[in-house]
Amino acid sequence: MKNAHLHFRQPLKTTPFHPRTAAANRLNAWAPWAGYTTALNFGDDSMEYTAIRNQAGLYDLSPMVKYDITGPDAVRFLNRLTLRNVAKLQPGHVHYTAWCDDAGKLIDDGTLFHLMSGRYRLCCQERHLPWLRDSAIGFNVNVSDVSEDIAALSLQGPCAYAVLARAGFDGAKMLKPFQLADYRFGTSGKVMISRTGFTADLGYELWTSPANALDLWDHLMTAGALNGLRPIGTTALNMARIEAGFMIANMDFISATTALRPDRTRSPFDMGLDWMIDFEKGPFNGRAALKRERDTGHTPWAFVGLDIDGNVEAEHALVYDNRKHEVGHITAALWSPTTKRNIALSMLRRPYHAEKSNNLWVEIYAPRELEYHKLMVRAAVVPRQFFNPPRRRATPPGLF
Q1: pTM given for the model
Q2: Which of 29, 273, 320, 399 is the most buried (most CB within 10 A)?
Q3: What parts of the chain have a pLDDT lower than 70?
Q4: Residues 6+ apart with CB under 8 A from 239
Q5: 178-186 own/partner pairs: CB under 8 Å, 24+ apart
Q6: Which residues touch 45 (CB under 8 Å, ≥6 apart)?
């Protein structure tokens, strides 16, 4: 009890895998994520990215925020909370979803796991426990933060299943994308494996208790040695997610709960998530506002992919029509090693995402020997998913 108020002396927690990630982190490169210390890279982010696309990479996913939602009204509560129809999500399956405030502006996106009847797990980027519990008033449901109770790893890359098979998890062979199952580990342990990920590649996520964390890490690294398995950090994962066209809260859009200016928030229509809105399932947060937006067609922004001339990354650049009229900005950019393209994710004002997209220019300030040189280069709107190989969906997966 005497140490209860001394948490400020250790402002960041470490994950159950930290003894292994710390030993492997030759650059001592760390960053904060959801109150935890997480590795940016271990030695060479280009090699870690290469592992994701050509071998397999192991990423410590433990800082991801995880909420268990249980009780007789779990489905009713989640249908009131999120955009998709949770009643259609069968046990042993996962779906990608998002949730809004009453104004129809995005709070966050994430994955919803249907673990068993009456038990769900919501995984997301940001913390929302007070808001979730306030939203649960009137429902016979319990919402609990289980982030510290679960150690999680993301195993991504074409050799991901080969590593699992060598590790004794060959039962994962028949998992289809967005399915999950439980497997025995060791003498008394258990690992839940879901066919999910953030790389647009063949991949799995493994969920276990902190007590099993180090044994699981060692077991996978030993099993994956012949497949070139290596630890990967957030920098390499971010490169892969840009190629995948995936968004991140407070990087590609500002959460409605943290935005200081009302015009900085975005709706699912702005972010290209309108496909998941189920207007027929009954009331949900933001339904009236989103229905007005749908009926009036008044959506000011569009989240798009851009193909940019040249090979200079356009991180945080502005986008112009005809070189002079600002029409948007870039939220993430990358020279893509796999597609050999200069790509970006961008917020564009409508209709410059479509009808008026034929004269777009990106203003890039490129560093050249301690000086910045202004470049104006052409850009074209393209589908946001730059990389989408068939191996991502193949069932059973290939043994690369």
Answers
A1: 0.95
A2: 273
A3: 1-8
A4: 45, 49, 334, 336, 337
A5: 178/93, 178/94, 178/95, 178/96, 179/92, 179/93, 179/94, 180/92, 180/93, 180/94, 180/113, 180/115, 181/92, 185/212, 185/215, 185/216, 185/219, 186/212, 186/215
A6: 233, 235, 236, 239
